[in-house]
Amino acid sequence: MQPQMIDLEGPYRLLYCSSKGDKDGVMQEIQKGVSPNLADYDKRTALHLASCEGCTEIVDLLLEEGADVNSIDRWGRTPLSDARSLHHEGICKKLEARGGTDPVELDSQNPCYAIDRMEVDMDHSTLIGQGSYGEVYLVKWRGTAIAAKTIRSSIASNHRDLSAFMKELALWQRLRHPNIVQFLGVLKSSDRLIFLTEYLCNGSLYDILKKKGKLDPSTVIAFALDIARGMNYLHQHKPHAIIHRDLTPRNVLQDGAGHLKVTDFGLSKIAQEKDAYGYKMTGGTGSYRYMAPEVFRRESYGKSVDVFSFALLVHEMFQGGPSNRAEAPEEVADRRAYEDSRPPLSSFVYPIAMKTLLQECWHKNPDYRPSFEDIITQLELIQESLQKEKAMEIWRRCVIL
Ligand SMILES: Nc1ncnc2c1ncn2[C@@H]1O[C@H](COP(=O)(O)OP(=O)(O)OP(=O)(O)O)[C@@H](O)[C@H]1O
Questions:
Q1: Span from the CA of 142 to the centroid of ligand 1 (angstroms)
Q2: Residues that bind ATP, according to the entry (predicted)?
Q3: Which of 17, 297, 327, 352 is the most core-located residue (most Cβ within 10 A)?
Q4: Pairing of strands 114-115, 183-187
């Protein structure tokens, strides 16, 4: 089954006509009773689209019809942010006159910490990885090994992508937690966009599983606790929760002391907790193999999409890799979304309480999935009972000897 397409004959015609500057079409839809604040799955309203496309007449019409001048899309942008990025000065003035604000501009007034180019030895860098945004290098900054992430010029040269990216970095720079990779700053006066984070010398969870295969239960629980603590910090972020949206083994790194940290907030966005409808995003966002069913089906979603991905990560740690390896990731996501397919849980491998926890975490109803706070409590109990079992085993052996 394919994700649903938007029906241009339905109320979404308002959005289509607004983006095309079709005044008659917009009027017809509004007269039919379609709300001027109707939004698509990216929370983009007719006013966002008209402002973006420079359709002044449609902007006037929508404002007269009561469109919310400060509606926020899933990238945290208002219609004014769009009009500004595309230099539609006349529309900017109209939106400002109606009280329009631009959170992207406000954020850029609080820019990322800039690190002087001279302080970073990029000439003696070592390539350590390649992601969808660009290459990652090991470099020295003031004598300390750190990671330098370069951003592909196709992203860095696109005004809209760049400002969305800088917004993400500005958010990341405010985060501080032992299980979150520390953002250090952006490289000043660089011809490319490069940002710096702490360096984690043991690579990603993906690398660890590839090298070691399945992990023993006590290591899995310790790793799961690290990830859950980092994720709980993100989900409890104020004033808005941060949803990671792309929690995968590649986005979990291990430090020299053996602890795991969550990274790569390129896809995470601030969740509007008050929004009764939750967020909506395209099925193409995030990695299919770890994608929650509601995301694949392009439905509203919330923080629990990360809980679903977390369960699959924990399952992989027990198994030494993903289940359904031979199947294409998109097919796996499709079967999870439309046939409720889930990886098998053999009772020989999983402690009973762990099995129950995983089943809750990948529950088809997002409301039944536990919060990371609850997950931490459960994992601590499982860890305690595993430690007791181990101690009993040692004691038994001593008695026999
Ligand atoms: N801070 C870091 N310390 C050490 N290695 C890192 C660091 N950041 C990234 N890496 C390495 O570089 C690789 C690429 O990282 P990057 O975050 O760019 O992409 P990814 O997470 O693998 O994929 P995607 O961009 O699709 O999420 C990682 O898999 C990891 O091995």
A1: 22
A2: 149
A3: 17
A4: parallel
Q: Which of 226, 246, 264, 334 is the catalytic position?
A: 246
Q: Is 224 in the pocket of ligand 1 (CB under 6 A)?
A: no
Candidates 128, 170, 165, 166; CA nearest to 148 is: 128
The finding on whether 122 has its CB within 6 A of some atom of ligand 1 is no
Provide the ipTM.
Answer: 0.96
pLDDT tens for each residue of 36-82: 999 987 789 999 999 999 999 999 999 999 999 999 887 778 999 88
Residue 246 annotated in active site: yes
Locate CATH 1.10.510.10 in the chain. 205-390
Which residues participate in the annotated binding site for ATP? 149
Q: What is the mean pLDDT of residues 106-114?
A: 65
For the domain spanning 114-198, the CATH number is: 3.30.200.20
Dihedral Cα 309, 314, 316, 318, nearest 10 deg: -160
Question: Poorest-confidence range of 60-64, 78-82, 219-223, 225-229?
Answer: 78-82
What is the domain class of 10-104 according to CATH? Answer: mainly alpha
Decide the pairing of beta strands 144-151 and 193-198: antiparallel
